[in-house]
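Sat 14:20. Reprocessing the chain from the morning session after the first attempt stalled halfway. Input below, unchanged.
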Amino acid sequence: MRSPMVRAVRAEWTKLRSVRSTPLALIALLALSLLLTVASANGSQFGYGGPKKYDASSFVHRTATGDGTFTVRVAAQKNSAGWAKAGLLLKDGTASGSSYAALMVTPEHGVRMMADGKHELTGSGGTDAPRWLRLVRSGDRVTGYESADGRAWTKVGTLTVAGLPDAAEAGLFVTSPMDGKEERSGPGDLRMHPEATLGRAVFDHVAFPAQSGSGGWQQTDIKQTVKKGEMADPVAPPKPFREHDGTFTITGSGDLGGLGMGGVGQLGGQPDLVKMALDDGIQIATIAVIALGVLFITSEYKTGTVRTTFTASPRRGRVLAAKALVLGATVFVVGLVASVAEFLVARPALRDNGFAPPLFPELSLTDPATMRAIVGSAAFLALAAVLSLGVGALLRRAVPAVVLMIVTFVVLPIVAQTTSIGFSDFVGRATPTAGLAVQQTRRLLDTVITPWAGFGVLCLYVVVVLGAARWRLTGRDV
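Finished this time. Tokens:
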């Protein structure tokens, strides 16, 4: 014998299937979300106007012939920028763009090894100066090592530098890319003001092979080669290096690396591509689930069949719970299909419009944060539908209930984007639209609430409104 709740769920499932608006709303959910996703992804373009490879630094060097081991300790490094670099450099001459192998420490991204702006290896993450660095050359193969004390060494990796001549320039380098602070000039408006930075590092325990030159150290300020059509980054003029008792103090400005590696092209951080893929489609689909949720209960009041429902199942709270369960589950399943489809459609469109490797990582459906955003988007739609059901039960009329929900989920966020940052932030964290934060996979400057906190705000609204709807249902005859 089935329990009363099971019978109530079966009855509400039968009603939902029989309501004429149900298939229309679900089809609209899928169609609207996909159409807007395609339009949004094709309209989102990224244009990078800088060089694809950077090779600018202050280089204090000697000529080193043949194989050898080059060791130094970066005793101190100024945090002029998160991707400022200081370390060892083996290079084919001193011209920008010539072949090189470099091992460096950064203030915020640990130890890195690079070659020719094409290859990058990651050493210890989060480690800054002081740090010992060592490059060992064997023909065209260069191996990097790092150490905390100069005794126990950890291998970073080996890179092949085919263009490195037998007589290469070997030395110490310092560089610091342009930096800038993002600021919010208005709701949804982020602006970056790039500024030149000047890096500074102190080197000691310099140990180069005996055949590394006899004419003393030279400083070359390697300047970036900028091709026609490329934008030149601002740089700060370096100072002449100082050397005292084997300790070198060097300043430098510019950058070293290739697009997408060593921080090149990442000023201002990465956008949230997953949210970009899902956000617009889910927001427009919300209109469809609002209509479905409201009509699921107000249609019974309009036709008078609600009396039959409550006669067959006098426990009105149980009826409301069954409706919420059936509606939420149905919208979640369809919403999950829509969310996955949006992601799969948007991914190649974003890639074709400039959001592509190496600067932007490939979006993966199996990434935990991506999966949370996709499943969370479906859950957002389900909760929006259930919240609309509760509002419909409170107002008992379709038009005012639909208008109230559309104002809450659609109009209010639009108004917030045209008023002030304070009001926009309030809407983003204190209204049901806070639930859209579940789509976030990166924390950005304009992030006003964390994913699960935002989702919790929406859940709280659903609980309160359903509680009020249950109280009203049980407190009146109809």
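The longest strand covers residues 68-77.
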